[in-house]
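re: ur question from earlier - yeah i can do the single chain one, its not a big deal. heres the input i used so u can compare w yours
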Amino acid sequence: MSPVDEREWLAERFETHRRRLRAVAYRMLGSVSEADDAVQEAWIRLSRTDTSDVENLAGWLTTVVARVCLDMLRSRRSRREEPLGAHAPEPVVSRDDRTHPEQETLMADSVGLALLVVLETLAPPERVAFVLHDMFDLPFDEIAPIVGRSPAAARQLASRARRRVQGAAKRPNADLTRQREVVGAFLAAARAGDFEGLLAVLDPDVVRRADRAAAPPSGSEIRGAAVVAKGALAGSRRAGSAQPALMLVNGAVGAVVAPGGRLSMVVTFKVRRGKIVEMDVLADPERLRQLDLAVLAS
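and the output i got, formated as tokens:
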């Protein structure tokens, strides 16, 4: 077999495993774009490897993807990112108003957003061990070398993660529901031009910060419910295309502005005791391209 034929044969074999590898990577990373990066890295490594001794290509590829994801998770944890630059899963609202069929399949086939919130709180080795064992049935003797632990220690990692996941599942997500209600009320009042409605959901000392691209003439930081409400009314045309979005970096509800499916602004909210106490507005195109968001179903 010529080198060209061998590469084509290898590429065909790789493609038969791509969907499963993307599913593994997505559950570990919570991001479609990062999952695709991890799978692409697996292909690069495969194309540079002598596979004549590889008896189980699916297992070999899963191990490679898992190690790449573990490195990405550790790198994510080690970075000190600003709140709006932090990680959260990929937008379901696409920038061209069309979601790629493969992405639709992945999202529909993936874990729920609530579970992704919990997975974001796990240490990288815990997340990898839990995903590989509990979601993909890999034995601990195969997981152990990936996370650099003994099989018994890998079992403990998955067990710890499982307790966290099960504990979160047993708790009613009343706080998240309340956050969504407050943000929804804010957006509804902004759309309706309801000044009193805005004051009703804003803390008297609310702070709104904005990046340079989003900063109004009043400045990048304003304080006080009345001032913030007036700013919201001034931008009410934008609120008309906003929709609630789950910010998986911390499980908080925010809003995206995506007219025509094109992401133009992201607003994150901090809600305390039923009132909005902080808002952060991001509109810089370069930073928006770096964000991953998951839009809540209505």
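The radius of gyration is 22 Å. not sure if urs matches, ping me
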